[in-house]
Amino acid sequence: MQLDRAGIAARIPHQGSMCLLDRVLEWDDNRILCSAASHRAGDNPLRAHGRLSAACGIEYAAQAMAVHGALCAAAYARVGAAGAVVEGAPAPRMGMLTSVRGVDLLVPRLDDIAADLVVQAERVSGDHNAIVYEFTLRANAHILLSGRATVILDVDATGISA
After folding, report:
1. 53 in any annotated domain
2. Segments of the chain with pLDDT less than 70
3. Within-domain flag for 73
4. Which residues touch 148 (CB under 8 Å, ≥6 apart)?
5. Would you state the pLDDT for residue 87?
6. What pTM was computed for the model?
């Protein structure tokens, strides 16, 4: 299933210009692939001093992880834990990016990249409370940045896990 920007915005808390992703290209239980053109936008809210640092790519990856979690939660809710079809889907579980490690920034900035970004996040481990993803941002065949992130789920507005 592919999603457009409106479908993405309906599944993550980031709205308006802070919703950085344009499309979910593909996804499954362990991986999501998204595209974005917002890195070239002059009004990108992550720009500082007229530039978009490559480190901002971590936010692109975090949003891909959030969409992935929402899609997986909805798919799981429709099938249910015991394999039976269940009506409706619960609200996505609130998560917080708590750790980013092993980040390699292979370019200094993103706003001068002419091609659309391709954002991939792959779940490499986790349980019902924490998920570890590996992520990459590419433009065409060139890797721009990569790393690993941990997301803690069921975080309330205070940042405390429920």
Report:
1. yes
2. 76-93, 155-162
3. yes
4. 100, 101, 102, 124, 132, 133, 134, 135
5. 47
6. 0.86
Q: Which structural domain range is residue 96 located in?
A: 3-153
Looking at residue 74, what is its pLDDT?
75
Q: Which residue has the tokens 């708590």?
A: 98
Cα-Cα end-to-end distance for the chain: 31
Say which CATH number the domain at 65 has: 3.10.129.10
Distance separating alpha carbons of residues 66 and 3, to the nearest angstrom? 14
Rounded Cα–Cα distance for residues 61 and 145 (Å): 10
93 in a structural domain: yes
* Alpha-carbon span 45 to 48, nearest angstrom: 8
Q: Is 75 a member of any domain?
A: yes
pLDDT of residue 83: 47
Number of domains in the chain: 1
Distance CA 65, CA 123 (A): 9
pLDDT tens digits for range 42-88: 999 999 999 999 999 999 999 999 999 889 887 765 544 554 444 45
**Cα 136 to Cα 50, 55, 81, 93, 103, distances in angstroms:** 24, 12, 31, 24, 9
